[in-house]
UniProtKB/TrEMBL annotation:
Top EC class of this enzyme: transferase
Species for this entry: Lupinus luteus
Summary of the function given for this chain in its UniProt record: Catalyzes the phosphorylation of thiamine to thiamine pyrophosphate (TPP). TPP is an active cofactor for enzymes involved in glycolysis and energy production. Plant leaves require high levels of TPP for photosynthesis and carbohydrate metabolism.
This protein's name: Thiamine pyrophosphokinase
NCBIfam families: thi_PPkinase (TIGR01378)
SUPFAM superfamilies: Thiamin pyrophosphokinase, catalytic domain, Thiamin pyrophosphokinase, substrate-binding domain
Coiled coil: none
SMART domains: TPK_B1_binding (SM00983)
Example GO BP: thiamine metabolic process
E.C. number(s) listed in UniProt: 2.7.6.2
GO molecular function: ATP binding; kinase activity; thiamine binding; thiamine diphosphokinase activity
Pfam family, one: TPK_B1_binding
Species classification: Eukaryota, Viridiplantae, Streptophyta, Embryophyta, Tracheophyta
Pathway the protein contributes to: Cofactor biosynthesis; thiamine diphosphate biosynthesis; thiamine diphosphate from thiamine: step 1/1
Length: 265
């Protein structure tokens, strides 16, 4: 099978940004990252994701996290300096969690504030994804990848809401991250090739049917591979699986969630 026939996935955003990559980031072949910060403890690698991203958005109370938790992640620099260096492009949400002092601070520094408190039917994450997709509506989104920090752990209804956003925007690459793992969607009826960044991720992984049972999934590169296997809640769901090497391939007749653990450094 030709390379072009695969949908490829690689968590290179977990590796430090090289000057060289930065200089070629306008190339049409390079993934363009956007970062969304939710209202949960910031993962320790957030400064690195910030450097990879070209657009940074806080979801409501996520702005409090950026303001208060970014300085302790970079202890060798003054807090005030960090707070003025890491300024989001926008803060969007229903604005019931952001602190007034934080809102005023970023507003003065030019952050766009978008209050959508009238919409109580979509989550702040959903609102932020819409904002990013509308920034350049006519541009091809296949090279865009939206990284979402603070999406996992904490309140279960929020976690499920965040996973539901993956399903609502299944045509957009969105990756939910915590300090422990990442999750993204593998859309159905495609050949997926996942390049494992083994210095920072693995070996624990999972493949989870989402929304409906899958009748047939086939994988390579896992300790417990699937071979035309059915998966459903109440039956088999591939949790606590292990990646064997640097490439995993997946094919399925329904959307699956892919999750992989992060190595503790
Ligand atoms: N404990 C959590 N676990 C996972 N995601 C979270 C958690 N808390 C917040 N989030 C995410 O961060 C976003 C912004 O959080 P914030 O606390 O501002 O939301 P909210 O709209 O006030 O939530 P709610 O009104 O349900 O408490 C949420 O929409 C959600 O996506
Ligand atoms: C059936 C149903 N369940 C829950 C909510 C509440 N809700 C869902 S998203 C959201 C915004 C959170 O920032 C709120 C309050 C609703 N509207 N409809």
């Amino acid at each position: 099978m030709e390379k072009e026939d695969f949908m490829c996935h690689a968590s290179t955003f977990l590796l430090p940004l090289l000057e060289k990559e930065n200089n070629t980031s306008t190339s049409e072949f390079v993934t363009k990252y956007a970062l969304i910060i939710l209202n949960q403890p910031l993962p320790t690698f957030t400064p690195m994701l910030w450097d990879h991203a070209q657009v940074r958005v806080c979801a409501d109370g996520g702005a409090n996290r950026l303001y208060h938790e970014m300085p302790p992640l970079l202890p060798h620099q003054h807090s005030e300096l960090i707070q003025t260096r890491f300024v989001p492009d926008a803060i969007k949400g229903d604005m019931d969690s952001i602190q007034t002092e934080v809102l005023d601070f970023y507003k003065k520094l030019g952050t766009k504030i978008i209050d959508e408190s009238q919409d109580q039917d979509t989550t702040d994450l959903h609102k932020c994804i819409t904002y990013i997709l509308n920034l350049t509506p006519d541009v091809d989104k296949s090279k865009l990848c939206i990284l979402v920090v603070g999406a996992l752990g904490g309140r279960f209804d929020h976690e499920v809401g965040n996973i539901n956003v993956l399903c609502s925007f299944s045509g957009t690459r969105i990756i939910l991250l915590s300090d422990d793992c990442l999750i993204h969607l593998l859309p159905k009826n495609q050949h997926h090739k996942i390049f494992i960044q083994s210095s920072v991720e693995g070996p624990h992984c999972g493949l989870i049917p989402i929304g409906m049972p899958c009748r047939s999934s086939t994988t390579t590169g896992l300790k417990w591979d699937l071979d035309n296997t059915e998966m459903k809640f109440g039956g088999l769901v591939s949790t606590s699986n292990i990646v064997k090497g640097d490439i995993v391939t997946v094919q399925s007749d329904s959307d699956l969630l892919w999750t992989i653990s992060f190595k503790k450094l």
